[in-house]
Design a protein that fits this description.
About 30% of the residues lie in helices and about 30% in strands. It is of the alpha+beta class. The chain folds into two domains: about 40 residues; about 100 residues, Immunoglobulin-like, CATH 2.60.40.10. It has a seven-stranded antiparallel sheet, with no helix packed on it. The longest helix is centred in the first third of the chain and has 28 residues. The relative contact order is 0.14.
Length: about 150
């Protein structure tokens, strides 16, 4: 076989080609596995079985939350603070707090407190750095009934 070589294709040539091929494949797999594990920003529970035991309680809490009829939208203002509209939260005494999480974990989580600025309107006391964030909101009505949501901030 002399199509692309000046000499014959020997067993050593073929061995070098196979070893080189697998070396490249293994190297790429190791690099990709390293990137996958070092950039994972997901939440993992310590014990999946224990978490599964609370699943029905979480479903019941979600149904109770729906009875409030609230819906949230958020946007970042020019000064970096978050403007939150909590549609349906017209009663006085609603308290709102939140945690901003960077989706890839490149910046630390930031706790946010919100103050009422009008009917159904709340603004964070501290600014948030520019970029993409996941905002987990926790609100309570005057009776103490909890309400939670997760929003994207871009």
């Amino acid at each position: 076989m002399k199509a692309f070589t000046k000499g014959p294709l020997t067993g050593w040539h073929f061995t070098a080609i196979i070893v080189s091929f697998f070396a490249v494949v293994i190297t790429v797999n190791l690099i990709m596995a390293r990137f996958a594990t070092s950039t994972f920003g997901g939440v993992v529970v310590a014990n999946s079985y224990v978490a599964s035991q609370n699943y029905n309680k979480w479903l019941d809490a979600a149904e109770r939350q729906k009875t409030l009829g609230w819906a949230a939208t958020a946007r970042q203002q020019a000064d970096g603070r978050i403007a939150l509209t909590l549609a349906g939260a017209t009663e006085p005494g609603v308290t709102v707090a939140g945690v901003a999480r960077h989706p890839l974990g490149r910046q630390p989580d930031m706790a946010l407190r919100f103050v009422a600025t009008g009917p159904e309107q709340f603004t964070s006391e501290t600014p948030l750095a520019a970029g993409r964030w996941k905002l987990r909101i926790s609100a309570r009505n005057a009776a103490g009934q909890p309400w939670r949501a997760e929003l994207d901030i871009r």
